[in-house]
């Protein structure tokens, strides 16, 4: 009877070990690599990891090697279908060619978040992130 109850904890990852996975982190980074290990907190170990960046229909990747990811930073984790991986309609370019666009997008997003935080604090009465009243 218990075997029919689906995993709702990090134990659900047991079938994903040794498979190629895509991980999206809270800071927006997109990584793909082979899941080698995990623990009860969903901390992940990825081997042969690449960081992906995108701009329009262009894609670039940088090898970052062995990667340890704290579970609380994972937004999305999914298996990559190896049969369809190359069907993605993105043109691969060198990482250095896309890096300036990627860094500008990060800076623009940071400025947008600062403006949003200021409006929420001054006009709506929300606390600043990490400031007084932002604890639980």
UniProtKB/TrEMBL annotation:
GO terms for molecular function: mRNA binding. It comes from the Eukaryota. It holds the Pfam family LSM. One of its GO terms (cellular component) is ribonucleoprotein complex. One of its GO terms (biological process) is deadenylation-dependent decapping of nuclear-transcribed mRNA. Keywords: Cytoplasm, mRNA processing, Ribonucleoprotein, RNA-binding. Transmembrane segments: none annotated. Component of the cytoplasmic LSM1-LSM7 complex which is involved in mRNA degradation. Component of the heptameric LSM1-LSM7 complex that forms a seven-membered ring structure with a donut shape. This is U6 snRNA-associated Sm-like protein LSm1. It comes from Schizophyllum amplum.
């Amino acid at each position: 009877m218990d075997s029919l109850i689906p995993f709702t904890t990090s134990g659900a990852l047991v079938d994903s070990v040794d498979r190629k996975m895509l991980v999206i982190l809270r800071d927006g980074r997109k990584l793909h690599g082979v899941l080698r290990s995990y623990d009860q907190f969903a901390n992940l170990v990825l081997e042969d990891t690449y960081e992906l960046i995108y701009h329009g229909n262009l894609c670039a990747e940088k090898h970052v090697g062995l990667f340890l990811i704290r579970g609380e930073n994972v937004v999305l984790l999914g298996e990559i279908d190896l049969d369809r991986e190359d069907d993605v309609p993105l043109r691969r370019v060198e990482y250095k060619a896309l890096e300036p666009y990627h860094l500008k997008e990060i800076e623009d997003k940071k400025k947008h978040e600062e403006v949003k935080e200021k409006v929420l604090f001054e006009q709506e009465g929300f606390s600043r992130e990490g400031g007084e009243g932002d604890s639980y």
